[in-house]
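TL;DR need structure tokens for one chain.
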Amino acid sequence: MFGNTLIAVFAIVVVLMILNIILSKVSSPNSYTIYMPGFIIFGIGLILFVVSSIAGKVVIVGLSLGAWGIACLFAVAISLVATAIVESKTDS
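>> reply
TL;DR here they are.
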């Protein structure tokens, strides 16, 4: 299950980074819109994590809801740190 969670983390990170690249090209330089997908996925991860403790064992594509929540939270952490580093390098 740990391997499947890591695969989900990497898939979510790739989707978030592509979305961040697209949003950075379309948005203004003083805008925080490139961080919004990360905050939305963070909220989804928290909701999945909390629902997993209430609902019990629910499996989606081989992972429980808690594993999907953890995957979302890890992916958002990686994506937001990478986005902040890239944005700080392009602004200077």
